[in-house]
Amino acid sequence: MKTIEEINLHNVKKILAEKKIPEFYPGDVVKVGVRITEGKKERIQYFEGVCIAKKSRDLNSSFTVRKISFGEGVERTFPLYGTLIDSIKVIRSGKVRRAKLYYLRDRTGKSARIAEKIRKKIGIDVEVKPEAVTEENVAPVVEAPKEEALAAEAAPTTEAPKEETPVTEAPKDEQKSEGSSEKK
Q: Is residue 83 left, alpha or beta, with left meaning phi > 0 and alpha meaning psi from -120 to 50?
């Protein structure tokens, strides 16, 4: 028999195969496209705000988005794998040090701002796979010509340290003494 966790995991994989959900974290500004049905018509309404919480529970995963609308704070919790969500787009990444940003509820204006996280993108995905060392992989050893080897042996590898001669300041002393004798 399958357990509930296995069934949930299978359903999550099935949903992820159909639609792409980007990686986002609390502190990121996200734009969520929500399907709204009005009678027989269906339209997409976007809800853009700061993700203040994210709950990872397989199929029951959800996230909370907060925005300020006409001076009033509005929070909405969305199921991550729900059918109502059409699209999720990350507008900018926030640099935060907490998993739940409930403290933003009490703040307004500049104190409610979140610094932007700068991500470096080089555009190349590099995968490093360790290779087994075989005779084909190893570069052949190239020996130096005999003349260069002899010249390298003849050159002294260590030099004797040069002795430094102490600098005497006698000429300056003499100039001072001559100058002082002329004044007298």
A: alpha
| pLDDT tens profile 6-17 | 999 999 999 999
Phi-psi domain of 20 (left: phi exceeds 0; alpha: psi -120 through 50; beta: other): beta
Q: Which tens digits make up the pLDDT trace of 25-40?
A: 999 999 999 999 999 9
Helix (H, G, I), strand (E, B) or coil at 48: strand
- Closest by CA to 27, choosing from 112, 86, 84, is 112
Contact call for residues 75 and 62 (beta carbons, < 8 A):
no
Q: Residue 77: CB partners within 8 Å, gap ≥ 6?
A: 62, 63, 64, 65
The two three-digit tokens of residue 37, written as one number: 């049905």
Sheet with 29-38, edge to edge strand ranges: 72-79, 62-69, 41-55, 29-38, 85-92
